[in-house]
Description:
- The protein is mostly beta strands and about 170 residues long.
- The chain has a single domain, classed as Sandwich (Immunoglobulin-like).
- It has one helix at about 1-20; strands spanning about 25-30, 30-35, 40-45, 55-60, 70, 75-90, 95-110, 115-125, 135, 140, 145-150, 160, 165-170.
- The longest helix has 21 residues, at about 1-20.
- The radius of gyration is 19 Å and the shape is globular.
- The termini are far apart.
Amino acid sequence: MHAQIRRAAIAAALATACSTAAAAHVVLDTAEAPAGSYHKAVFRVPHGCSGSPTTAIAVTLPDGILSAKPQPKPGWTLAVERQALPRPVAGPHGSTVGERVARIAWSGGDLPDAWFDEFAIQVRLPDAAPGTVIRFPVEQTCAQGASHWVGTDADKGGAYPAPALRLSAGHAHH
Length: 174
């Protein structure tokens, strides 16, 4: 009798582990950060596309993020797309900002499905109310297929959720 229970428990644990792995999303390693702060946003890519290796990751930066610097990765090519702002805004240290980084992409890599990796961007978070959630849509391209992590938690359709960051109370700037 105990052997049957043990086998059932092992089967249940394996089923849970397999379903958890299949449901893994591209996520940020930190769920919350202070509004108005400089923050290292680390995007964790847990798997490829249905067994196919990841060959490119592109992150679209939400409105309100005016400053962004990608972390280079050996073996991957970086591309930064800029966007003109409708009107210039005040930047740090008395500067004026007329454009922002809108999208950052790493391509040309080979991340096998069985491995994970992290892609990082240093951003200046917007001065928004605590509790504000900002989303970073991510496009994952694989040798065969792609996954678009662009949805919201409320999406019930085919969209996977975009990595999200909740803003906490800001801190004084220096």
